[in-house]
Write a sequence for this structure.
């Protein structure tokens, strides 16, 4: 399958022309620093952003979809998820306001994993200690990665007071320790600001303003709010679609409940989620999300996580409508699939591998 790569400073190439010519992957990059014939970026956080767009042509063709399905591949981030963006902006914002100091402040965050991993990356680069507060018994792969990155991980039983139990543990840490700063992705406007400053402009530039519909699941609400705000500022007719778990469709007015789409559907409407700009809500079951994530792996060669599957599944529902024929639908592939090896997403192949290896 053809591949075309161009730099963000090259203004002569039409992304739309290359898409039509059959190029399935278009990569856009900021200009690197060349030293001694090698590529070098002296500050690792500067690697965050400018992730590629991928057109899902195989799935669209197989399903008879006449719209263009485009995914933004966030596993290209340094720590492999869209949350690297939020982590960087949340920490930079606190530094700009002189709320934190390297070597003095301890950062604390409630996370299901991906934000924590992003914070661990930025914190290590800048010299902050970081403590992650997580719900127990889920996201084992992310717990492993956080500990591997040197993060202190505190687990809270989600069966006791739910999300409030996590917040209570954070408050306890603030009372027990000095110089604690809470990296709060659910209430801090710096989270959607990351996507207004970076994600939205990237999508607009890389599609040359041809995006018609933006589809994204809501966890903290940062990606949906910030990206949607920018795209609607550039073109008010861009439609913004929110994806949430069918099992816990709280934004739609349903009751919170347990579900298996990690990183989205926290069971409440986050403070930073701007529901006024949402044009439609599409619900996706965990089974639909996992089935689509597996399809993305086998039919498009894209190894992405469960919420990415939910986004793609929602895209197919929207793209199947007659009124969306020929439109460009852009979504987020929020994290890499390797981060879910111990989840239900990989359960069948994991069992097969274990059984095969037992024969030796």
């Amino acid at each position: 399958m053809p591949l075309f790569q161009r730099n963000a400073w090259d203004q002569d190439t039409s992304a739309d022309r290359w898409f039509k010519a059959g190029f399935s992957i278009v990569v856009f990059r900021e200009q690197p620093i060349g030293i001694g014939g090698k590529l070098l970026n002296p500050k690792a956080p500067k690697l965050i952003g400018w992730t590629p767009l991928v057109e899902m042509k195989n799935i669209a063709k197989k399903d008879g979809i006449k719209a263009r399905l485009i995914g933004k591949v966030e596993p290209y981030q340094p720590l492999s998820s869209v949350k690297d963006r939020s982590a960087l902006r949340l920490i930079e914002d606190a530094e700009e306001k002189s709320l934190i100091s390297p070597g003095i402040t301890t950062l604390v965050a409630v996370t299901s994993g991906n934000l924590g991993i992003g914070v661990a990356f930025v914190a290590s680069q800048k010299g902050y200690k970081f403590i992650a507060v997580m719900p127990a018994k889920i996201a084992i792969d992310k717990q492993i990665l956080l500990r591997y990155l040197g993060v202190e991980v505190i687990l809270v039983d989600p069966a006791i007071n739910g999300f409030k139990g996590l917040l209570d543990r954070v408050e306890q840490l603030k009372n027990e320790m000095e110089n604690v700063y809470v990296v709060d992705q659910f209430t801090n406007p710096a989270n959607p600001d990351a996507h207004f400053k970076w994600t939205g402009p990237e999508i607009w530039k890389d599609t040359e303003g041809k995006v018609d519909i933006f589809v994204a699941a809501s966890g903290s609400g940062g990606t949906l709010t910030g990206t949607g705000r920018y795209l609607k500022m550039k073109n008010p007719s861009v439609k913004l679609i929110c994806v949430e778990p069918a099992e816990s469709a709280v934004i739609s007015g349903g009751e919170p409940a347990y579900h298996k789409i990690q990183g989205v559907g926290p069971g409440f409407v986050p403070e930073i989620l701007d529901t006024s700009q949402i044009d439609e809500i599409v619900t996706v079951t965990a089974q639909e999300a996992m089935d689509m994530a597996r399809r993305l792996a086998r039919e498009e060669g894209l190894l992405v996580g469960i919420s990415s599957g939910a986004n793609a599944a929602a895209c197919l529902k929207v793209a199947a409508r007659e009124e969306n024929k020929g439109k460009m639908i852009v979504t987020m592939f929020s994290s890499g699939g390797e981060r879910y090896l111990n989840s239900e997403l990989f359960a069948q192949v994991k069992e097969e591998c274990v059984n095969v290896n037992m024969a030796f």
